[in-house]
């Protein structure tokens, strides 16, 4: 059975792969490719954020009553990641390698510790509290994929 | 939000971990001085006063210093277990560790029981307060998982190391004999395998896949390593304590060593399969550190079969402490310090304003310079074991160079942080709304 944790962690890995492809292109100076791949990465991240912000977080908040809890923090970190992705896309457009790689490095650390908090703490809580609805929720995510 | 300012996450204020990270390189510098002035004595035996002084300047002043700072950050982020009263705990632990380490090293160097006695008191207070805070934080953690359990076992490993060390300190400082002669082996054994190795492995399970985007470690290793090592260490200690002359317990601790060998080899394999193409200073330092760990474990397991067992024992210590632990920890610092500076700036700066990213806070080139100095210093230290009169002065200079470059890298980030913070305060933008 697929759990929310497994499904969302799998999507984290898929986003990681897209990030690594874009960074490799930027590191070898292939900026047309880097720009395209960075765009694909940003779109995949945006899809993941919207799954959480529009479906999973509200369901969790409703089930637990924790509207001031971990989801607030996660939403704030999403906003920060969006800013860093915007900086990376601007740097790719400007062909600014140091800025691209520096912003990317920052995003990696922020994103990975964010993912870890979700995978270690939030998703297990969701699976425990939303267990019965998990299949329906995941079906809703798949329909917006 | 219930809490304003920097504590909007569970992460502690920047000053909590940073004081540890900024102090640590100075103790490496002090260790370099000891290598420079007492090199020949130091490399002759691991129990010479100069060797004890230099070892503790590195293990307490650098390793424990950075690892306590890292734990104050890791516990909330990895385990959802923030320390209670983080500022107070950090202040007591940092002062106790700083002055306790200085007193201990000074006590060994000049042979002063009074200095050693005060070191015992200071270190007991610093570690005691920190470990109680860790226990409270972990007891309140919302979930139980292999990370929490691993961190808890590492903390117990630290507690055992400290208690055994205090017992030795009481012996040196107050002339009270240790309860078992085995303590001399149990103390470094727990320090390296039961505390440092465990913390590096438990953190490594996360940060190696995280920073380089490698495949994950096998679940059996993630779940099993900490309990297996800890269990073996407990059995080993019990048997050694009861019968210090028995030879067979060496097989128990060799098994713990074999677990770490598997971890180090696996880490190198994962890093070879990383998704990120760039080889940054952190990756270089981790690979070098894992290579040193493998060499140290191999040398240690072979030591009885080798001639010049004393020299080999010192070389193993150099590889494990300086080559493995210092390299790996410093590699982590080059990620943690710029990231924390960025993270806290992000909390201070008004929305929509530009925050300098990690590459602007600490560029690649100085990170690489440090990595090269660290590797050269390790090679020189190992060579100095076998030719102390000729090589010890060179090793001392290279360790000092590495320490200075590391200190400069930490200070570079702090300066950039301060400038960016001042720039935001001067700006007319409204107060940050988090």
Task: Describe this protein with a few key phrases.
heterodimer; A: 145 residues; mainly alpha; 5 helices; elongated; B: 434 residues; disordered C terminus
Structure write-up:
The complex is a heterodimer of chains A (145) and B (434). With 145 residues, chain A is mainly α. Helices cover 86% and strands 0% of the residues of chain A. Chain A contains five helices and no strands. Chain A has helices at residues 4-27, 31-64, 70-93, 97-129, 134-143. The mean pLDDT of chain A is 92. Chain B has 434 residues and is an all-alpha fold. The radius of gyration of chain B is 21 Å and the shape is globular. The N and C termini of chain B lie close together (8 Å). Classes of the chains: A mainly alpha (145), B mainly alpha (434). At the A-B interface, helix 1, helix 3 and helix 4 of A face helix 2, helix 6, helix 10 and helix 11 of B.
Provide the fold topology.
The complex is a heterodimer of chains A (145) and B (434).
Chain A: H1 4-27, H2 31-64, H3 70-93, H4 97-129, H5 134-143
Helix pairs in contact in A: 1-2, 1-4, 2-3, 3-4
Chain B: H1 15-44, H2 49-79, H3 86-110, H4 113-139, H5 146-174, H6 183-212, H7 219-242, H8 249-272, H9 281-301, H10 309-348, H11 358-361, H12 364-386, H13 388-426
Helix content of chain A: over 70%
Q: Helix count of chain B? A: 13
What does the overall shape of chain A look like?
A: elongated
Give the tally of β-strands of chain A. 0
Which two chains touch over the largest interface?
A-B, 33 and 32 residues
Q: What is the overall pLDDT average of chain A? A: 92
Report how far apart the termini of chain A are. 19 Å
The parts of chain B where pLDDT drops under 50 for at least 5 residues are 1-8, 429-434
Q: So how many helices of chain A? A: 5
Strand content of chain B: under 5%
The biggest beta sheet of chain B reads: none
- What is the alpha-carbon Rg of chain A in Å? 16 Å
Q: In terms of per-residue confidence, which ranges of chain A show pLDDT below 50 for 5 or more consecutive residues?
A: none
Q: What string, H for helix and E for strand, traces the elements of chain B in order? A: HHHHHHHHHHHHH
Largest sheet entry of chain A: none
What structural category do the secondary elements of chain B indicate? Answer: mainly alpha
| CA gyration radius of chain B, whole angstroms | 21 Å
Q: What is the H/E order of chain A?
A: HHHHH
Total number of strands of chain B: 0
Q: Rough shape of chain B? A: globular
Provide the β-strand percentage band of chain A. under 5%
């Amino acid at each position: 059975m697929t759990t929310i944790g497994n499904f969302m962690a799998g999507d984290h890995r898929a986003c990681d792969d897209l990030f690594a492809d874009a960074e490799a292109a930027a590191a070898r100076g292939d900026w047309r490719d880097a720009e395209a791949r960075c765009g694909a990465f940003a779109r995949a991240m945006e899809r993941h954020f919207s799954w959480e912000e529009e479906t999973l977080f509200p369901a969790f908040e409703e089930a637990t009553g924790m509207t001031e809890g971990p989801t607030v923090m996660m939403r704030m970190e999403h906003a920060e990641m969006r800013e860093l992705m915007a900086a990376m896309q601007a740097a790719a457009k400007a062909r600014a390698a140091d800025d691209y790689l520096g912003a990317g490095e920052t995003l990696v650390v922020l994103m990975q510790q964010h993912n870890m908090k979700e995978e270690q703490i939030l998703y297990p809580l969701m699976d425990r509290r939303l267990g019965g609805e998990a299949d329906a929720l995941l079906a809703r995510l798949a329909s917006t994929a | 939000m219930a809490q304003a300012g920097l504590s909007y996450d569970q992460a502690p204020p920047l000053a909590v971990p940073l004081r540890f990270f900024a102090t640590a390189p100075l103790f490496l510098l002090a260790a370099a001085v000891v290598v420079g002035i007492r090199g020949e004595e130091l490399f002759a035996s691991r129990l010479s006063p100069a060797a004890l002084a230099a070892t503790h300047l590195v293990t307490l002043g650098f390793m424990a210093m950075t690892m306590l700072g890292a734990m104050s950050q890791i516990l909330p982020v990895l385990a959802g277990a923030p320390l209670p009263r983080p500022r107070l705990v950090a202040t007591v632990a940092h002062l106790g560790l700083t002055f306790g380490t200085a007193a201990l090293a000074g006590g060994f160097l000049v042979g002063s029981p009074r200095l050693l006695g005060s070191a015992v008191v200071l270190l007991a207070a610093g570690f005691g307060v920190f470990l109680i805070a860790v226990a409270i934080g972990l007891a309140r953690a919302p979930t139980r998982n292999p990370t929490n359990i691993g961190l808890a076992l590492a903390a117990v490993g630290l507690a055992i190391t400290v208690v055994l060390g205090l017992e030795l300190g009481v012996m040196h400082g107050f002339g009270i004999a240790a309860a078992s002669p085995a303590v001399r082996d149990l103390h470094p054994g727990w320090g390296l395998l039961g505390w440092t190795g465990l913390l590096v492995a438990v953190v490594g399970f996360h940060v190696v896949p995280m920073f380089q985007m490698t495949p994950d470690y096998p679940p059996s290793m993630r779940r099993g390593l900490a309990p297996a090592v800890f269990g073996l260490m407990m059995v080993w200690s019990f048997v050694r304590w009861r019968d210090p002359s028995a030879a067979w317990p060496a097989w128990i601790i060799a098994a713990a060593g074999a677990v770490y060998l598997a971890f180090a080899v696996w880490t190198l394999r994962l890093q070879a399969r990383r998704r990120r193409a760039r080889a940054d200073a952190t990756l270089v330092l981790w690979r070098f550190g894992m290579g040193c760990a493998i060499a140290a474990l191999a040398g240690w397991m072979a030591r009885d079969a080798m001639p010049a067992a004393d020299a080999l024992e010192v070389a193993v210590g150099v590889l494990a402490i300086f080559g493995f632990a210092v390299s790996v920890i410093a590699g982590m610092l080059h990620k943690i310090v710029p990231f924390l500076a960025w993270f806290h700036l992000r909390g201070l700066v008004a929305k929509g304003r530009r925050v300098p990213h990690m590459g602007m806070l600490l560029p690649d080139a100085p990170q690489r310079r440090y990595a090269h100095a660290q590797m050269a210093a390790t090679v020189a230290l190992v060579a100095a074991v076998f030719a102390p009169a000729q090589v010890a002065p060179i090793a001392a200079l290279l360790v000092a160079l590495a320490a200075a470059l590391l200190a400069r890298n930490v200070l570079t980030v702090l300066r950039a942080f301060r400038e960016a913070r001042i720039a935001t305060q001067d700006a007319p933008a409204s107060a940050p709304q988090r």
